[in-house]
Amino acid sequence: xxxxxxxxxxxxxxxxxxxxxxxxxxxxxxxxxxxxxxxxxxxxxxxxxxxxxxxxxxxxxxxxxxxxxxxxxxxxxxxxxxxxxxxxxxxxxxxxxxxxxxxxxxxxxxxx
Amino acid sequence: xxxxxxxxxxxxxxxxxxxxxxxxxxxxxxxxxxxxxxxxxxxxxxxxxxxxxxxxxxxxxxxxxxxxxxxxxxxxxxxxxxxxxxxxxxxxxxxxxxxxxxxxxxxxxxxxxx
Lengths: 112, 114
Known about the structure:
Chain A has 112 residues and is mostly beta strands. Helices cover 0% and strands 54% of the residues of chain A. In chain A, the strands form two sheets. In chain A, strands 2, 4, 5, 9, 10 and 11 form a six-stranded mixed β-sheet that branches. Chain A has a five-stranded antiparallel β-sheet with strand order 1-3-8-7-6, with no helix packed on it. Chain B has 114 residues and is mainly β. In chain B, strands 2, 4, 5, 6, 9, 10 and 11 form a seven-stranded mixed β-sheet that branches. The mean pLDDT of chain B is 93.
């Protein structure tokens, strides 16, 4: 079945540093999504990407839809304490029977 | 404001009892989903429904049941047959079909079975 490989699994960074995480797949997706989940809450959509090569920003967050349609990355610039949480990527295909596939998440820790 | 409401936020049950988790959405979405999340783990799909009165098993459906009698509601029952029911349960919805529509999530129900 379809799988997403999300890396890294966790990150420990200093406040103010930039962050980069990515997802790769052996399957082609038509949409890539990036979510953030804070403790005890549901995931919240950060960025949605619909076209290969698309680069989209949301404040300090930037995400790109890979040209091959098999990968995506998320960058966070100048991290702040409230960036702490788990970041999930998700892929959707246009096949009506396919389900949304989630990566296992990247847990971001910010050191004071 | 439109959104997805899950209730209750915390639920405690004794082993051997069935328990039903509520999920209501007012986003006019056709599709609804239930996921299970264990500590340090990703999201695993339990059941999903693309349209009223129809639903399909996800990857870990054993020990769970659902119904979809109304477009707005997709309750999940955790039965006594579920061997490890303690987990964080997330409900989600989207437009479904071929719309490449992102999932919108509720804030989850944490179920503890002792």
